[in-house]
Design goal:
The chain is of the alpha/beta class. It is 36% helix and 14% strand. The strands form two sheets. An eight-stranded parallel beta sheet has the order 3-10-9-8-7-6-5-4, covered by helices on one side. α4 links the parallel β6 and β7. The two termini are 37 Å apart.
């Protein structure tokens, strides 16, 4: 395993991290989730990412059980708030920040998280209120560092201007060879201000593994075939996207890598990316994912794959 520094923080995170969206507590049984966590640690992964809204607390609860006997200082734990938790609990108001951090810590069975992230921007709460509340969370020792997910460049600039509060050290955008939007503004802006990317969906919800073939039903044990997880994949299952993924898989073969390894290596070629989040539903998937770190890839092959991805019609 290799590690990268997370922005201006003192955290060193594994280049591959374990996420839990749609999986633990939702589409994957608890015992399998625990097996995935154990395998992640065996492989040297030290970074676990979740959110309160994943299964409305179910993911944090499963992870809390999986991590309860693991020495706390041996791993980096991140969670998020903002999403709808029911009963009007939503957003980034002071009241929600105070309520949700305590609820997350209880479910995760820990006294603190290393990284507390705003899951999205809250247009209904003044940014100063949010930043002040988050700063209080850090000063109380309940979170060590702060991050955000899917904020616009203007949102980021507005937060950076509030120098009196704790500053963000991480950004969590969607990023893959099929989704390169952060490259235009978010990555350059972040790099200039001590913020690293922790990217989600680097495998385009599994499409970049090459397991989905145009015109054929998804494998029965795949995310796309799952009632609990498949709905999030609708946009990726278009024939033109699947055809491009098959072609990119061919480029991966030229590189001597599996399609997943090649896709992760492509994301990690970007220096501002600290870690790529993978959502394993089986322990053996993590073995394949971590193989992305074992080889150097000819930049010409990356360029070839980029040309294939760039030719996909956008919607």
């Amino acid at each position: 395993m290799r590690f990268r520094k997370l922005g201006a923080s003192d955290l060193n995170v594994s280049e591959i991290s374990l996420g839990s969206w749609l999986t633990y507590g939702v589409g994957v049984e608890a015992e399998t989730a625990k097996a995935c966590v154990r395998r992640a640690f065996d492989l040297g992964i030290n970074f676990i990412d979740t959110a309160n809204v994943y299964g409305r607390g179910a993911s944090e609860t499963v992870l809390g059980e999986a991590l309860k006997d693991v020495p706390r200082k041996s791993y980096v734990l991140a969670t998020k708030l903002m999403g709808d938790m029911g009963n009007g609990d939503v957003g980034l108001s002071r009241a929600q920040v105070k309520k949700q951090i305590d609820a997350s810590l209880k479910r995760l069975k820990t006294d603190y998280v290393d990284l507390y992230q705003c899951h999205r921007y809250d247009p209904n709460t003044p940014l100063e209120e949010t930043m002040e509340a988050l700063t209080e969370v850090v000063k109380a020792g309940k979170a060590r560092w702060l991050g955000f997910s899917e904020w616009s460049p203007q949102n980021i600039k507005d937060a950076l201007a509030l120098k009196q509060y704790e500053q963000f050290v991480s950004s969590q955008p969607q990023y893959s060879i099929l989704w390169r939007r952060p490259e235009k503004e978010v990555i350059p802006l972040s790099a200039e201000n001590g913020i690293s990317q922790i990217v989600w969906s680097p495998l385009a919800q599994g499409v970049l593994t090459g397991k989905y073939t145009p015109g054929q039903k998804p494998p029965a044990d795949s995310r796309a075939a799952s009632d609990n997880m498949g709905n999030a994949m609708t946009g990726w299952m278009r024939p033109e996207v699947l055809e491009a993924a098959q072609k990119i898989a061919g480029v991966a073969k030229e590189a001597g890598m599996t399609p997943a390894q090649f896709a992760l290596a492509w994301v990690l070629r970007e220096p501002n990316v600290a870690s790529a989040i993978v959502g394993a539903s089986r322990p053996e998937q993590l073995d394949d994912n971590c193989g992305a770190l074992e080889r150097q890839v000819d930049p010409a092959l990356f360029a070839k794959a980029e040309a294939i991805a760039d030719a996909v019609p956008r919607r």
